[in-house]
Amino acid sequence: MGPNNPFHDPLRFERQVKPCSLVIFGANGDLTKRKLIPALYRLAFERRLPSGFSIIGNSRTEMSDDAYREKMRQSVIQFLEESPFDESVWRDFAAGLFYISGDLRDPNLYSRLAAKLAELDQTRLTGSNALFYLSTQPSHYAPVIEGLGAAGLQHAAPTATNPSPWRRLVVEKPFGHDLASSRELDTAVHRVFHEDAVYRIDHYLGKETVQNILAFRFGNGIFEPLWDRRYVNHVQITAAESIGVEGRGGYYEEAGALRDMIQNHLLQILATVAMEPPALFEATAVRDERAKLLRSIRILKPGEVPTHAVKGQYGPADVGGQSLPGFRQEQGVSPNSQTDTYAAVTFFIDNWRWAGVPFYVRSGKRLAKRVTDIAISFNPAPHRVFADSAPGAGPADLAPNLLILRVQPEEGISLRFLSKQPGSGMQLRPVSMDFKYGSSFGMRSPTAYETLLVDALTGDATLYSRQDMVEASWQAVHPILEVWNNTTFDFPNYASGSWGPASSDDMLALRGHTWRVP
Amino acid sequence: MASAIRPERILKELDQLWVSLGQQSEGTGVLRACALTLIVITPDEGADALGETLAKLMREHPSRLVVLRVRPGSEASLTERVLAQCWMPFGSRQQICCEQIEITTTEAGLKDVPAVVRALEAPDLPVVIWTRIHGLLLRTECAPLLQLADKVIVDSQGYPHTREKLAAIRATLPARLVADLEWTRLTRWRHMLSQEFDNPAHLSRLHELQTATIGYDGSFVPMRALYLAGWLRSTLPPHVAITLERSGDAPTPRLHTVTLDGGSLHFHINVEPTRASEMRICSQQAHPPMPALNDDELMREELGVTSRDAAFEASLAYAEEIAA
Ligand SMILES: NC(=O)c1ccc[n+]([C@@H]2O[C@H](COP(=O)([O-])OP(=O)(O)OC[C@H]3O[C@@H](n4cnc5c(N)ncnc54)[C@H](OP(=O)(O)O)[C@@H]3O)[C@@H](O)[C@H]2O)c1
Questions:
Q1: Which residues in chain B are closer than 8 Å to A2, comparing Cβ atoms?
Q2: Are the Cβ atoms of A439 and B31 closer than 8 angstroms?
Q3: What's the pLDDT at B257?
Q4: Can you give the C-alpha Rg of chain A in angstroms?
Q5: ipTM for the assembly
Q6: In terms of pLDDT, which residue wins out, A235 or A398?
Q7: H or E element, residue A58
Q8: Whole-angstrom Cα distance, residue A323 to residue A325?
Q9: C-alpha dihedral, B23 to B25 to B29 to B31, nearest 10°
Q10: What is the pLDDT of residue A472?
Q11: Is residue A255 in contact with ligand 1, taking CB distance under 6 Å?
Q12: A261 with A245: CB under 8 angstroms?
């Protein structure tokens, strides 16, 4: 550790990124254009990046630095959300943007990269610190990691001014397509990088609302006492999309909703909702609790899968006068495809806090609307004082207290409770008390990629996934994938614009529950 | 006389206002949000122009707003009106509204104000006073008003520093949080300096520094320059000589440069109103945007600071020494 900067003012300055280089593999790809470079530009706009900050992009297309800068400038203008584009900020930012073309399977690429990093250390004082970002197809992860290792780029030698330079690796999802392949990837990663240097990105964890769940649970004293099997009846986690696969049929055909959404994003959300309070808000403590929770998810036996998991696929439909193709009619999709465009699972968590409480998790495409939320349904009042005065209605049963944590589109928190209907008599009706994040605070929230990039650049892994979490969540879905692979489903089984297959409602009905309409 | 205003009536009017806003919203509802009571003391003349600044502030810091308009006059008089600040967030169909109570008083009526304001505070939330009338809070009749505040924000831009004024600001520090927007204006400067010294290549040479020169223009030293001097004194090694250097007679005194020099280290920021800013460290040069900040931008930052500002307190203490 070097001396501390005496000018720091943590009360007013946001966490600072120290001088470093960021190397993006897949620099000509969709993720880089849509998310990474706009997020980095925005960080520069907010003065979160140090002046020598440098980016080296790599992909095969031949381009000069200037041509790459121009391409990225257009992407920033197109994809920047809720912020202005400022030419003078861009000029300073673009001066640190470089491009190296080359095939990532070519060992020579890595020696050129090493030379460029050394040059930037001299010209832009990046202190030998570097973050490698894998933003390319998953099949390229292992070759890049090997290439970096062969060129010795995973370490940097201490210098007079920087006694402990760092090298880190960001891996984009998916982390394998099943338990075995995730372990293979992990072996490849660990042959070169130490676990402390590996940042597995799950952009859901970077969303402001998901972080807000932690603030809500652990910053307030009044909710945590209710947060267990005695008061919580069940939990529903929904991530619904109204769009279909939108030209990514080929990719989706290989993935499916269970792999693409539930195994990673929704199980991470589940862990955030259900984990024990960490002792500190610090990477190891928070990730230990998340991992512990994920390991407590009950692993289904093959015979339990049909009653605990529902697989669905959308069919063609006319919606609003428009004919929409079914999944099997999408480009790149087999006409007999068995891929799940909808998946719903009943999970149980085998620990003291949650024993017996079902966690229903669903995700699908072409559902009624785009919404992601978490609904915690509480037990009804133990004694029905008002049952007689509200004949037939049984409002306390029909409308249990519901706490809804909304992730998107409108981030916020709602609490549904019963209140007396105005007028004589004692008629109760449910009302909802809303807190909307975006409208209570008009300020712009950072995007998930802004948050996560700063975290990786400053060495904070709190919101990143770890190999034990990845494995625990693959383990939780593994039996379902196995059974589904060996079953032929009669697809399609739900109409576009609906809330999914009827069998999903049946799954909840087994325990006397129904899906909410979010 | 305080009896001219009955706080209960104001609160009732506020309730009615919410009911009617709810009825007008055609089922989409109105959200009310409140994180603090913000009391803004402003000269009556020109107070209308403050509306936009306050509306912008409300988005980030939804508050119960009490605007105290003060006009000259030796006869005590208070009047009030109640209104709502509403806006429709981008992409939403729902309005968000904050309540505003406007009290107009003569200077002589000021003594009656604290009793009214005390009854109007939003319960259980912090109270912040932002005064736009220089020196007003130091008057004895304002002492009870000051007692209500958890934080007091002043702005000494355009006023010469005097040892007494600094002492007065300091005297209130133990009891509550005090802020000066002249200090807030320095955040950007301080941040830039700090960012450059995040680089170990620069930080490791900090001990080589010999001088820090703060350049200003004007007939007196602007508080901002003095705070900067105080801050550098509190952060730089004691051997570094700190000087304030005057370069002209601008009608509104302003800070324009800071230069740190010594050994192989050279750091310089220059901000001119007519030119792009310039930042140099050793051989590197940049032109970071350094726009003059509006009151709403300064206040947004200041309302976000809810705990003691150790850097400000240290700078203030040294500024007082330097001013002596
Ligand atoms: N897109 C998203 O929103 C999103 C969201 C979450 C996660 N992800 C993950 O992020 C990763 C990248 O996704 P993406 O959508 O950006 O992919 P993409 O659009 O296919 O981009 C990959 C880029 O890599 C370059 N490339 C391909 N083969 C190469 C090779 N042999 N050597 C060097 N460069 C090569 C290509 O550029 P050239 O043709 O110029 O070589 C291509 O533009 C994937 O793992 C994906 O799962 C993406």
A1: 200, 203-204
A2: yes
A3: 94
A4: 25
A5: 0.85
A6: A235
A7: strand A54-59
A8: 7
A9: -100
A10: 97
A11: no
A12: no
* B106: amino acid identity, one letter: T
Distance B312 CA to ligand 1 centre (A): 48
Does the C-beta of A143 come closer than 6 Å to ligand 1?
A: no
Strands B95-106 and B30-32: what pairing? parallel
A197 token code pair:
């240097």
Residue of A nearest to B305 (CA): A11
Mutating to test ligand 1, I would choose from A135, A175, A181 the residue with most ligand atoms within 8 A of its C-beta, which is A135
pTM exceeding the 0.90 threshold for the entire prediction: no
pLDDT at A391: 47
CA of A101 to the centre of ligand 1 (A): 14
Structure-token pair, residue A59: 């992909």
Q: Report pLDDT for B245.
A: 94
DSSP B212-237: EEEEEESSS--HHHHHHHHHHHHHS-
- Nearest-angstrom CA–CA distance, A384 and A82: 49
Structure tokens at B177: 């949080």
What is the pLDDT at residue A392? 47
- The encoded tokens of residue A354 equal 């949650």
Give yes or no for residue A396 having a pLDDT over 50. Answer: no
Q: Which residues of B touch A12 (CB under 8 A)?
A: 187, 190-191, 301, 305, 309, 311
Which pLDDT score, from 0 to 100, does residue A438 have? 63
| Best of A136, A169, A205, A246 for a ligand 1 pocket test (most atoms within 8 Å of beta carbon) | A136
Q: Point out which residues pair with A468 in neighbouring strands.
A: none
Q: Which residues of A touch B194 (CB under 8 A)?
A: 5, 7-9, 13, 16
Summarize chain A as % helix, strand, coil (round to 5).
40, 20, 40
Confidence of residue A333 (pLDDT cuts 50, 70, 90): very high
* End-to-end Cα distance, chain A: 50
Ligand 1 centroid distance, CA of A24 (Å): 10
CA atoms of B195 and B186, how far apart (whole Å): 14
